[in-house]
Amino acid sequence: MSENPADLRSSPRAPIELKVEYRKVNSFFADYTKNISKGGTFIKTRKPLPVGTQFLFKLAVPHRDNPFELLGEVAWARSDGDDPGMGIRFVYANDHQRSDFESVVEKMMFDSLGPLLSGKLLDKSRT
Hints:
Blueprint: E1 19-24, E2 27-36, E3 40-44, E4 54-59, E5 68-78, E6 85-91, H1 95-125
Antiparallel strand pairs: 1-2, 1-4, 2-3, 3-6, 4-5, 5-6
């Protein structure tokens, strides 16, 4: 991969660790996110799925009774180096799901980063 994945992001990311569970064919995986944005997340794993793979995953979100279930698509992956994993692009079923999840991400960013920093990041993503 010659491009830096950070350069391809359409939304700023916040460093938030959440448990994520996902299934591909008959295999079940449980890993952790390293960061999240409204448009995607980075899942830290030594066994990334191939680029283009779509899968349903459950994202455990603080202060929420049930995990969010979202469709994700592997946008990029790396299995070597100090930070192996895969960049996931969220694939929303509809505008309502997008709006619900984006509100949750904004709250997590606010709780994690505080009002000043999260406000600056969220303002950048609206331009």
